[in-house]
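Weekly structure sync, notes
Attendees: PL, DS, HV (note-taker this week)

Item 1: MarR family transcriptional regulator
DS walked through the input record. Source organism listed as Actinoallomurus bryophytorum. Sequence as pasted into the shared doc:
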Amino acid sequence: MADGPEVNEVAAALLVSMGLLRRRLRQVPVEGELTLPETSALSRLDRGGPTTASMLARIEQISPQSMGATLAALEARGLVGRRPDPEDGRRVVLSVTEAGREVLRNKRTARIEQLAQALSGGFTPSELEGLMVAAPLIERLAQSL
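Item 1 (cont.): predicted structure, written out as tokens:
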């Protein structure tokens, strides 16, 4: 990679730019806003399907107590439901309710609209194409962390 940028340069540039993007997206409130841990847990349940609180805590790399508090808040709002595990009645399986999916859809839609407005205001078609090419690479990078 002698002709291209150094790995540390790319890492530093991505850290700065993605951090700024994330902060700016968070500055505009979305109705029914969730905390970061609530969003993460709800999104994980939505993508990964029903699971136990302990498994979710392991996946999210937080303590079971923290996950329990997060899930209790989501359940109190009707965004997460519980049912006995069909394979082991002693365990409880959590899943996203339709209300939880609606909150996630609303949040995603609001953020997409926010980004679309910014993109339509000052990016050329070739720049938009470049961002479209970069998106799966950024996703792959996130999954490798």
